[in-house]
Amino acid sequence: MSSKATEVPTTGGQEITYLEAIREALFEEMESDENVFCMGQDIGVFGGAFKVTEGLQARFGPQRVLDTPISEIAMVGAAAGAGHMGMRPVVEMQFIDFIANAYDMITNYVATARYRAFLPCPMVIRGPSGGYVRGGPFHSQNPEAGFIHTPGIKVVYPSTAADAKGLLKAAIRDDDCVLFFEHKYLYRRIRDVVPAGDHVVPIGKARTAREGTDVSIITYAATVWKALDAAQQLADEDGLSVEVIDLRTLSPLDDEAILATVRKTNRVLILHEDTRTGGIAGEITARINEQAFAWLDAPVLRVTAHDVPLPYAPSLEDFVLPQTSDIVRAVRQLAAY
Fold this sequence. Notes:
The protein is α/β, with parallel strands linked by helices. 35% of the residues lie in helices and 20% in strands.
């Protein structure tokens, strides 16, 4: 699969958006490894629903940027076969909500292929997820919890442009299937400087988004920014020092980072946009109780979405999803213990 001789855009050391960082990672990995190719609905000439893949087909041709039929299970099945044969496919779900259509292929086949038959399955399944955009129930879901308990797949959900690029490059190079969630609210709202050169962020390592000593907030994706806003408000109004841990990877979890922040502040709030029941906050709470209970000075609290489909109406969406005011209230409750 040869490439066309046009220049690959590069912005190392410059400030770019979350969306541009993802596109740049795809360009760089396709340029450096001819086995990397992309497939998905309308990702070619149209450039994808959010224009993440804009310019890729012009650069690499239709054999490496494939427009597919509207069948998520077929896309994942085809990618699995390509992975078995040494390719590194990147599958785009037009909206991550529709990954449900490929759940059987991902969990029953892809996740078990290496264990069952020693079949390598290096592939990335990526797509826009999350709310705060008035997208309603079919275009605003966070289905990550439906996959984190399945051995054999990894789940990544970055919150910054630098991490979006670095983690996607790591995901493409990984020898297992990686589900790569991209929060659509962050696509064009978040900008930061991405380091120059081959910027790769290791899968499975959390980062400290803000240092603190009084209360820890453990979170990921768009709610990292809600947590940072709340932390600043609490510092200004209450004099509280709030630490914010950005998980970045949900499977495998960085237990070391989670336990370290518990031991540091002794009070923990777990925050995520996914629904409360069955969300990853429950798993993190269990691990804290098992491994760091003696360090807690207060119960572990959760701030999550309500257990309802996400409404279209702005006022109702704001009520259902975690807001800065919800986080501030919960942290004050913890600090009062």
